[in-house]
Amino acid sequence: MVLLCSGKYAKYPYYGNVEGIMLYSVEELCYYIYHNAYLLDDSFFEEALFSFIEQELDLKELADVLRQVSEKENAFTECIEVLFRNVGYYEEKELEELKQSLGENANMSVLEKRKIRADLYLQKKKYGMAADEYEILLREAEPADKRMRAKLYH
Q: Burial letters for 72-102: b for 16+ Cβ neighbours within 10 Å, e otherwise?
């Protein structure tokens, strides 16, 4: 299957905060979100991303809508829906599957999601980033949560 990218290619990339990858187009952004949504949270839709969409990709109207939507409480899924519907990179069926998956992951704590991120760094052999994330998680984990602390040390 070939997916056509028809949007503008950015001169300066947006740096994805999960894997440290560089994104140059709105289609790459959609692909990145689709495949990493379970690791992301409300903080992903931030001003730096909106500025990238507005300035580098010349999508001011989309950036403005995303800014407005992001101000709502728990706006992550709605921001994804606005972005995906505007770009048209994924079909309706794929968007619904993603929304369902996000709903299932909503029960995961932030700590659990961040542990998955640290594990991903480790799998990608980004050892320094993994170690930093594990250290932060160990500081934030409740001392009484021995099961999570054991997973982090492991």
A: eeebbeebbebbbebbebbeeeebeebbeee
